[in-house]
Amino acid sequence: MAVGAMPAATNRAYGVMKIPEIIHNEPPRLLVLFDTGEDEITSTVADVLGCTYALAHQLESAQDWSEEVVVLGVESGSIMATDALRDMGRTVIATHCVDTCRQEGSDESLTDCCDYEYLYTKTALIRHDLARFLAFVLGQYKPHEELRKKARTTMLSTTFSDIRAALPNMGILSVGADAVELRVDLLREPGGDKAHFEAVPGLQYVGEQVMLLRQRTELPIVFTTRCTRENGRFPMEDPELYYTYLRKAIQWGCEYIDVELWLPEDIRRKLAAEKGHSKIISAWHDFSGRFKWTSPVAHSIFHESALYGDIVKMIALVSDVEDNYELEFFRHSVQGPSFPLFSGLNMSAAGQLSRTLNRVFTPITHPLMPMIAAPGQLSAAEINSMLQSLGQKPELEVYAVGRVLDNGHAKFLEKCLNEVSLPHRLLCVDQPQTCSIQSYIAKAQFGGAYINPPLPVEFAPYLPTLTEAASTIGQVDSIFVQTTVNNGRTLIADNVTWKGIRATLTKDFIPSAFPGRSAIVLASSEAQAAAAMYALTSLHVAAIYTIGFQTAGHKQLQGLGDLDLVHEPLVVISALSVERSMAAVPVLKHYTRTLHHHRHDTQCISSKGKIFIDLAHGAVLHQSSNGNGNGNNNGNNNTISIAETLGWKTFTYADCIAWTIGEAFRGLVGENVSCDFVRLAAGRGLYM
Asked: Could you tell me the superkingdom of the organism this chain comes from (predicted)?
């Protein structure tokens, strides 16, 4: 499926990413190498891309498909000459099922000739993980661009010898974190006799650790190999060892790699040239206790780090509180558009003040960690408590307006505030949708509001500045307080529901799967469907058809006969009430079919995924076959269950609202939370 030209970009205010930044006009061209008997991964890749694929028995026979098929799949064992991979004019991704690799191993010489390597296991659902991996390596998911806009970012430093010990609690561990650091040097791979550990964990073991971590967190991964001189365990005798592991991290799609400054410049230069979409954190640590931020050496280290680093990290062990003030003077001297981002910290109890003042990737710990990663390291809650004591986090009143007590949203917001030790008070206001909240907004202590159900703009002329999304959708579900120049304040009325829907749409499909495709939205009114329509438009869906309501610029389908006018829609969204949600079933059945055709020794298959989202509040809970939802299956009376049996990828209101209130919390207090934690904290009320 070729992706057509996109409409002109719409400027979106207040930090919303412009869609041209994440979607390319040209479709990706991939060559997927798979292990013997694992050809199914090719169809999964194509489905995530929303495109066609071909399976070729040999690399040579795939040449004819170079312009016709987006994804080519070839068995790794059939490739005799690795040089031919470079002549395909495609991004080459080696895929390995770790269940097989544990027994048979993998051909590293072949993988070294590939652009990327994707590891997966059959014991877990991989589609979301694969979508994130592909979106990142193809340049459609750019976490660094979003994080650099934040006023303050943190990085959870994991210190587990086996990351599997962290996975059950990853949602709680990562509350307040913007990235997760995998300390590869702290991993302990059991030896062959199980009685001891390998001095350096092997690549296969580390690759599995990266795979497991990415499957359980939505946060960017920082891949770190800390040397013995800088409080780590990786030996320093062989710098090429670092290059091998860090290049692997790039192939595995890690969003950040930590490159230590002591490494030879040719290695740092090569990594910078080969980093793809990964970003480099150029790291330097001093444990001598003699380093001074006021010395000329400090600036020399910074500028040397800046040669190949997207972020410069400098950390020194100190014994005097005065060193924190010297660091702040240095920090201000290296800030500006011509410099990379700077993360500067002092270690030890005397240096903890610097951890509250640093604004870029401050390493944080958590009480559930086995140990801290560095002397004086603090948790997100401890940093916020210190900021409050310094007057940098004043107590504010955060409002939850509407049915927030019944649906669990207030419970979630309160738990999050407590988890990261924010001083704000949560005030719940249970009132009708049309009542005014003007009196709350006018308070000096007003710290923002989350409104559910959303407030129609037409009923609230007193609302502050509207974002483009809120104005277009006509509904406000969040009011944020933003700091302006000279520490002033401005209020922004926003709609984040559409972000929750868009995040759900792109959970299992990459953004470039949507341009050129069509969608159908069912609703009883335009207002009911407004957020869904906006989300689809933001992804540049070519045509949106409506059923049950009219809206300007989109064709309304009047009956089942009109469905033939729409060719294989990628998305069907039902915004109907629970009582009317079964009206979507005939639409889903109409578009359920599979296309196959053969050519020569290659099988070409149309692998166009289909997404169904049911936005009905209080929809019947169930445990779906693809891992969404909770509760019991209610048989044929459940629209989601029927959609799944018809082969649609399904999502519920709970999936969308989990993303939505996570976005709202980030906007309200600037802290990050995962969807897993949203579900845990909000409870069953989330589905109501």
From this structure: Eukaryota
